[in-house]
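Listing S7. Sequence submitted for prediction.
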Amino acid sequence: MNGFAGHVWVLFLVAAVCSLIMVYLLAVRRTAGSSLTGAVVLTLAVAAIPAVRGEPPHYVAGVALTAGGVVAVVWATGRSRRHRSARRSALADYEAGTAAVPLFAALAERDRLAAELHDVAAHRLTGIVVAAGAALRLADRERTGDALRHADEAGREAVRELERLTELDTTAAGFTEVDALAAAHAVDYRRTVDKAPARSTEAAYRVVREALTNAARYAEGATVCVRIEPTDDRDEPVRAGGDHLFVVTVTDDGGTSVEPGLGTGRGLAGLAATVTATGGTFRAGPVGQGRREGWRVRASLPAATVLPRRRRPRWRGTAALDYALVALAIALSLGASLLSADVPAPFGGLLPALVTVVLSGLHAVPLAWRSRSPGRALAAVLSALLLWWACDRAGWTQPPVSDIFLVYGWVELTLVHSVGLSLPWRRGLFAPLTVAAVGGLALASGSGITGSRTAAWAVLAGVLALPALAVWSWGRRTARRHERLWTADARRRVLLDGDADAAVSAQRLLFATGLRDTALRHARAVVAAAEEGDLRAVREEARAGLTALRDLLSGLRTGDDADDAPPPTVSGITALAARYGAVVRYAGARRPLPAAVEVFAYRTASALMAVGVTLTVRTLSDGVEVSGPAPTVPDAERRLRALADAAGGTLSTTGRGAVRVWLPEAFAWRSE
């Protein structure tokens, strides 16, 4: 019979080990929700065994608490392994993709310069061609003189702007430049917005300039109205991701198309990309009916950005281990006591039992704050221990506080390590010393102490100070290692940024060389012809400049486009979107992010990317949020949720059919 019982216990032990291994593998391979479900099911199954056998309720509760604590630690260990594996994979991708960073930085600069060149040269040269063509058709001396003066002034402006572009002065245009632009075209203009981000004012300037250029090309003689006003559309702030908007509207009432073939075909598409990248929306289309059908360009742009406050996940991500430690502390303190044959006898009665339960919770729950606020968590735990000591002195608790600290002092030491990890040494040094003092007081109150308890307290506090200082020093060393990793990452970024800047400079030099030989040369020839009074030469040089511009833009769009995948960084998302014909808009203060977070942001954007979609990448104070339309590919959302989970983040859906993925910056260091 004894042999049979021994075999049963062996089988039970094997089954328990296999179950824990299964929980661990679930935590490593599955998301937090599904793996936690498996952990809860296992805990309930273990607790059901004594319940089926008819054991007392306190015994069943003790089994459930003890099993839950062990399972929680195994689950949290698996979650930590999942995060470490994900981080290593992200860093490997980052290392493999950094070689493409300089190339794609150069390509991005090329596209930016191409868009700027289109806006500058096309605007000035188109106006010259239109004015000169009209004067030549009418053969009117006064009109010819006006056209020559306009060609001289606009040509000089074109030369000045193109020279600025070759000198690579990228100062953003503001509302003052928009006012001057509207005044130069003598349009019906009104602006009631005073302040906006630099990117928004630059985009507004480009919208007005392109719209006025198109009106000159295709609507000669039309009345043009330009308005820059706060938005009155309540839906637009929602579409813009929570930003306050203002609206730029340029409308004409129809006119005559002159000098066909002046456009480059990139104007409106470039404007749409520019506006959407700032976080706004863009629309352009006909208005009116019949012979007076006109055209309207409307852009909504951020006037001020309000970053949403994100709450950290309570049990997902890096907080999983903290809550698992809470479960373990409760399991070891209450669970072991409840497994006794007679309860509440181990606690000394019903009232002491209730007090002990409350104090056990107060001593364990602060572990949940270990990562967010270790100093406050340690203060709460020590306060609970002092309260336990006071109740012990009053005879309200069993077991005594000295036994509690001997068995569960690892809670204080765990928080001491967290203090060393998170706080500066001058602020954190209090932790081991305070734990030694309070722990010495708890131990000195034990029944085995004889003689002076004050002397015993001093000796015990000195003895406890050694392991407490050792644990605190361990946390400090870990913090310094994280600091070295951060410094190495920052140094690597500096070198990588240097390579990217060199590639960008080379692209700018190539661009400036081509610009000087084409559009700038023709713009100078326009000024020379205007000074000589040769209007026909003015028109021909301006048209030649536009043709050269179109050829230069076409040359820039072909040739050295990269066939490789973009680098897995936040900036690389723009290049990825260009391949899909999608748009990426960035919000929040752009700042360097840990390499692992950059890679996960890129992977998330890749999972959301589709033809024509608009994605938003928002930099928050504690990480990055990537949002966009929910993917329509089967199982895509499930894979996206697994991706966010592996990065320690969360995925949420909105009522508008969109998804938001939050990726915490702390993940990069907590996964060490």
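Caption to Listing S7: primary sequence and predicted structure tokens for the chain studied. The first helix runs from residue 2 to 29. The chain is about 65% helix and 10% strand.
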